[in-house]
Write a structure and sequence with these properties.
The complex is a heterodimer of chains A (328) and B (252).
Chain A (H helix, E strand, L loop, with lengths): L1 E10 L2 E11 L4 E5 L6 H8 L7 E5 L9 E3 L11 H11 L4 H15 L14 H13 L5 E5 L7 H18 L2 E6 L2 H7 L2 E6 L2 E6 L1 H6 L4 H7 L2 E5 L1 E3 L2 E3 L5 E2 L1 E2 L5 E5 L4 E2 L6 E14 L2 E8 L2 E8 L8 E6 L4 E2 L1
Parallel strand pairs in A: 3-7, 3-8, 5-6, 6-7, 14-21
Antiparallel strand pairs in A: 1-2, 1-4, 8-9, 10-15, 11-12, 12-13, 15-21, 16-20, 17-18, 17-20, 18-19
Chain B lengths: L8 H8 L1 H32 L7 H8 L1 H4 L2 H12 L4 H8 L19 H26 L2 H8 L4 H30 L2 H6 L7 H10 L6 H27 L10
The chains are: A alpha+beta (328), B mainly alpha (252).
């Protein structure tokens, strides 16, 4: 288990991180998800020993400071070195003997499927190949902790999914602890069962992806995760009043914003929580047998994802909540 | 003048002339040394000046840009005013009693070791190297040094294996420009050089101003040898630099 103990970072008068407390299980993939400028890279730099926090500590299970090996967002392969020299750089500076260095390079290049690239320079590689070389350069050092900064952001869709699976495979094979930061929630959800949401330098929530989507702890998390309707109204105790919906709610904070995620909250099947009657303005095919429905209620629009062909356009339906809705 | 046929014998004569070869070799070694020294000093200083947020080094970097803009002749005249035996420094030292007469001031201009020429070249070329390299270093920022550090390299290993090779194309570029200038420069060695240790451009020009038109083909062939050698040398340095660490990143 790795412990981030009250880590803060300040540069000049700007507070980048505020008292981050986290525990990260060994031999797992841990995602830190947050918008741009939330302090994700700063946090990762601290785990990599690149930056020192102004306050707090990052310790391993034995209570020692441990430095993770980083795979950078832009890979940062040394442009003047061949793939072989890039990969073996960490071993060379540790003065590993030549035969061991060559053997380990051969093994890791086979694992990464890049043996044929040995004499190429970084500018002769595709984005995907560069990422494999960057991973090999880190993994050849047998790190316990691997850090990845926005690892898939510059890959195209198909390659991204392929690399996500590949990284999972590597994690199992090398029994690594991987901490990666991203601003794409699908990436975080696909790679990790435990996701920390970092917004404005603060950890807002640490949860499994499903829990995050169904129970965001505050409005900032809900807004960042997106894919939801935010309806303003007034709240007194657990009674909410708005042009879209008025009735009982589960208040979480007192800002008076009704949170209706596109999926999972609204349905046509009757429950004990009637929502509203609305006219179907539009249906958009979303793939996976889903349609995004635009519902008009009293000249306001609400979106929700339903199974395809559940509703027809320009017809009025009664909607229900699957559970008592949350108001922030 | 009776010279109506094409002939290469002036070139062969020149290449067999021991005096010419001696001056050629001297000029080559001198240009090489001065350019190398300027690159070495400029590289060291560029690493000191690369941070643009350092309040101490920032004004020095700005100041270092000034000599790049000043013409050589300005520096030559300034050096004559300052460092000749009857110059300002010598007068000042005599006045305050550190040396007892002008003659005790060491011969720094027109001297055997060509110190005056070297100082002029360094004054102009060190800042040129600094300016060229600092721009590259700032563009490079610390990105690769951070990677090297994260992979376990010491500061020296990161400098030697990463920063320096990445800078190599820019250093080679500056070296070629400095060398070519030093090798072909006329006015600086003419004004500050030692007459017994003549440099090639001064030797060629002296031949020319003697007004002997029968020497003209020889002078032209010397000129051409000087120019072709400069080009071949620059090409060879570039070729060599492609095979040095960092050569792949482009050269010039």
């Amino acid at each position: 288990m790795y412990h981030l103990d009250n880590i803060s970072q300040q540069k000049g008068n700007t507070h980048i991180l505020h008292g981050i407390n986290l525990t990260i299980d060994e031999n797992s993939i841990f995602a830190i998800l947050g918008p741009s400028g939330s302090g994700k890279t700063t946090l990762l730099n601290i785990l990599a020993g690149i930056d020192r926090p102004t306050d707090g500590k990052f310790l391993n299970e034995a209570g020692q400071v441990e430095k993770g090996i980083m795979v950078f967002q832009d890979y940062r392969l040394f442009p003047h070195m061949t793939v072989f020299k890039n990969i073996t750089f960490g071993l060379k500076v540790k003065k590993t003997n030549s035969s061991e260095l060559k053997q380990r390079a051969k093994d890791i290049m086979e694992t990464m499927g890049i043996s044929e690239l040995i004499d190429r320079y970084p500018d002769e590689l595709s984005g995907g190949q560069q990422q494999r070389v960057a991973l090999a350069r880190a993994l050849i050092l047998n790190p316990k902790l691997l850090l990845m900064d926005e690892p898939f952001s510059s890959l195209d869709e198909a390659l991204r999914i392929e690399m996500l699976d590949f990284v999972k495979e590597l994690q199992r094979k090398f029994q690594l602890t991987i901490v990666f930061v991203t601003h794409y929630k699908t990436e975080a959800y696909m790679l990790s069962n435990k996701v920390a949401i970092l917004i404005d330098g603060q950890i807002m929530q640490v949860d499994a992806p499903k829990q995050l989507e169904s129970n965001p702890q505050n409005l900032a998390v809900a807004k960042f995760l997106g894919q939801a309707n935010f309806i303003e109204g007034s709240l007194s105790k657990d009674d909410f009043v708005s042009p879209v919906y008025s009735g009982k709610v589960r208040p979480v904070t007192d800002k008076g914003v009704l949170y209706l995620p596109f999926s999972g909250q609204l349905q046509l099947n009757k429950t004990e929580y009637p929502a509203f009657k609305g006219n179907i303005l539009e249906k958009k095919w979303m793939g996976n047998n889903l349609e995004r429905i635009t519902i008009e209620i009293d000249q306001r629009t609400v979106y929700c994802d339903l199974a395809s062909e559940s509703v027809g356009e320009n017809k009025i339906y009664q909607f229900y909540f699957s559970k008592l809705p949350v108001v922030f | 003048m009776g010279m109506e046929k094409l002939s290469l014998h002036y070139y062969t004569d020149a290449l067999n002339d021991k005096v010419f070869l001696k001056i050629f070799f001297r000029t080559f070694v001198f240009a090489l040394f001065s350019a190398g020294m300027a690159c070495f000093m400029g590289t060291v200083l560029a690493f000191l000046f690369k941070r643009n947020d350092n309040p101490f080094t920032k004004p020095f970097f700005k100041l270092a840009q000034l000599p790049v803009m000043l013409p050589h002749i300005f520096i030559v005249l300034a050096l004559i005013q300052l460092l000749s035996q009857t110059g300002l420094v010598s007068s000042l030292l005599t006045r305050i009693g550190i040396i007892h007469s002008y003659n005790s001031f060491p011969l720094l201009l027109n001297d055997q070791w060509q110190i005056g020429i070297i100082l002029t070249y360094l004054w102009k070329e060190v800042p040129f190297v600094i300016v060229s390299l600092v721009l590259v270093l700032r563009q490079m920022d610390n990105r690769y040094r951070i990677v090297a550090d994260n992979l376990g390299a010491t500061k020296w290993q990161a400098f030697w294996n990463v920063s320096l090779p990445l800078l190599m194309p820019a250093i080679v570029n500056a070296f070629i420009i400095n060398f070519s200038f030093n090798f072909g420069s006329y006015e600086v060695p003419y004004l500050l050089g030692n007459q017994t240790k003549e440099m090639l451009p001064v030797y060629i020009y002296d031949l020319y101003v003697q007004g002997d038109y029968t020497q003209l083909p020889m002078i032209m062939s010397l000129n051409l040898i000087l120019s072709v050698f400069s080009i071949i040398f620059a090409g060879s340095v570039l070729w060599l630099s492609k095979h040095l660490p960092g050569g792949h990143t482009g050269g010039i």
